[in-house]
Design goal:
The protein has helices at 2-36, 40-52, 54-67, 70-94, 97-101, 107-127, 140-162, 180-212, 216-228, 230-241, 245-269, 283-300, 313-331, and strands at residues 134-135, 138-139. It is mainly α. The model is unreliable at 165-177 (pLDDT under 50).
Length: 333
């Protein structure tokens, strides 16, 4: 009983560190963007998405390299992709009506579509791993995912530079500091805290997964995925409350692209062979759920003239599909 209480306390402490320092990272990252003139269109897709996905990166790599729990890593990565689309429905629910009436950037459709492509590669990796072959101890699908991630960043950058913005840029989520050095120091401090919290989280997660009887695949896909996605929740909701819905959408879709790149890095850190060959096949459910949810997310971006409900049918479907996915994962844990 004492060990269980210690694991619960450790899990909660790590969660608190990730949420608080992850939010601070986003705050000072935004200030850095303001001070250096980094484009706010790229802030959500690249900087904020990378920063808020840092817990997924560190938690997944430590899960395979330190704890030796590839199911936790896979569940964390794929579960976070599904949960980020659920946050999208939440964004629509709390967004000011005037923000919902504004057209969103077409770059989000491109980034979400590329996310579907990368998830499809993972699905093929599960169903027919021989299609990609191997590279050393890694699966060839990991090389494809890494190449697609960098190609996605390049394509979105080129697309953003050749199309006019859909609307005026929203206000900054955080007020910029007028000095660069304190911002950089705070950024490094909270990055270090996130590193510590994310490295310790899989240790307590694995113990809780065993003690609860939920299994590593379900625990990673649900509880751990939600925990490491908390920075995305905080940053996206803060952005949309200030009317910057483009920044929120960029953060969510960009985080999913980065998460799938994390899968490639996790495969590299897992030295016992291709990671897909060592995880529960129930993760394929999360892959398919992620594809369906992202497709619904793309549909939710369509203009909604005369829309009465705050949630479009596509956004409502996201909530229902995520709930069904959770039940299926629990049944197949």
């Amino acid at each position: 009983m004492l060990n269980l209480a210690t694991d619960i306390l450790g899990f909660l402490v790590c969660t608190g560190i990730i949420v608080i320092s992850g939010t601070k990272l986003s705050k000072y990252g935004d200030q850095l963007a303001a001070l250096t003139g980094i484009s706010r269109a790229w802030l959500g897709l690249v900087l904020l998405a990378s920063v808020t996905s840092l817990p997924e990166l560190l938690t997944s790599i430590s899960a395979v390299a330190i704890v030796g729990a590839p199911d936790l890593a896979m569940g964390n990565i794929l579960g976070s992709c599904a949960f980020n689309i659920l946050i999208l429905a939440w964004v629509y629910l709390i967004a000011p009506q005037q923000a919902l009436r504004l057209p969103v950037s077409a770059e989000h459709t491109l980034s979400a579509s590329l996310g579907v492509l990368m998830l499809s590669v993972v699905g093929v990796g599960f169903l027919a791993p021989e299609a990609f072959g191997t590279l050393g101890w890694m699966g060839g699908y990991s090389v494809v995912l890494a190449l697609l991630y960098f190609l996605s960043m390049y394509s979105i950058f080129r697309y953003g530079n050749t199309t006019p913005p859909a609307s005026e840029a929203g206000p900054a989520v955080f007020k910029a500091d007028n000095r660069l050095q304190p911002v950089v120091l705070q950024l490094l401090l909270h990055a270090g805290l996130v590193v510590l919290g994310a490295l310790a989280l899989p240790y307590f997660s694995e113990h809780l997964a065993v003690a609860s009887g939920l299994g590593e695949s379900f625990f990673g896909s649900f509880f751990l995925a939600i925990t490491t996605s908390l920075p995305e929740i905080v940053v996206s909701l803060a952005a949309v409350r200030l009317g910057s819905i483009d920044m929120a959408l960029g953060n969510l879709f960009g985080s999913n692209l980065f998460n799938l790149f994390v899968l490639s890095l996790s495969d590299m850190a897992f030295l016992r062979g291709p990671i897909i060959a060592h995880v529960n096949t129930s993760h394929l459910l999360t892959v398919m759920g992620g594809i369906i949810l992202t497709a619904l997310g793309i549909m939710s971006l369509l203009p909604r003239p005369g829309q009465v409900l705050r949630l479009s049918p596509a956004a409502l479907s996201i909530v229902l599909v995520y709930g069904l996915l959770t039940l299926l994962l629990y049944h197949n844990r």
